[in-house]
Amino acid sequence: MSLANDVGYPALFGLVMAESGGVPVPGETALIAAGVLAGQGQLDLALVIVVAASAAIIGDNLGYLIGRRGGRRLLERPGRFATQRQRVLEVGEPFFERHGPKAVFFGRWILGLRVWASWLAGITRMRWRSFLAFNALGGISWAATVGVLAYVAGDAVGAIIRDVGVGALVVVAIVLAVGLFLRHRRHAGP
């Protein structure tokens, strides 16, 4: 067996599950890398999607449980940053009451929300059945979408890196980031 087969699936599962549970690790990056490796024939795309979706669902449920059992106490405790933690509850509770299922589903595609949505859902006492359903739908669709896009784009990304070089890609990424920042500032106003 290849190194990708021996390490790829367990690493993908561990990173996606940890990120989904609230640990800031590169879970989505692992899924992208696994999709690219599947495009190169080193991993099986269907298995990549199943592993990533399962890890996302399990990790999110662990994060929900952590949030439900101890997250509120953590946010309400006195001490450093108590005001900011209280603000999380003041904003989070009404938000999750109105938009909880959407936040759980769409949060899969938003880095900050992907890492903390499960905790916030538990802390704000979102109904577990609703959480589970939207978490599963989000995890499956996220794993399939990102995995397939990485699978399809994998050869193109490899060709660009080979032909243009990593340095040119970094320059393009910086130019795009600066352009997006300037656009955001212009639209945000004074």
TrEMBL record:
VTT domain sequence ranges: 25-148
Keyword Cell membrane listed: yes
Keywords: Cell membrane, Membrane, Transmembrane, Transmembrane helix
TM helices/strands, residue ranges: 45-67, 131-153, 159-182
Cellular compartments annotated: Cell membrane
Any one GO CC term of the record: plasma membrane
Subcellular location, principal: membrane
Species for this entry: Baekduia soli
Domain of life: Bacteria
Name of this protein: DedA family protein
Homology family: Belongs to the DedA family.
Keyword Cell membrane: yes
Membrane topology of this protein: Multi-pass membrane protein
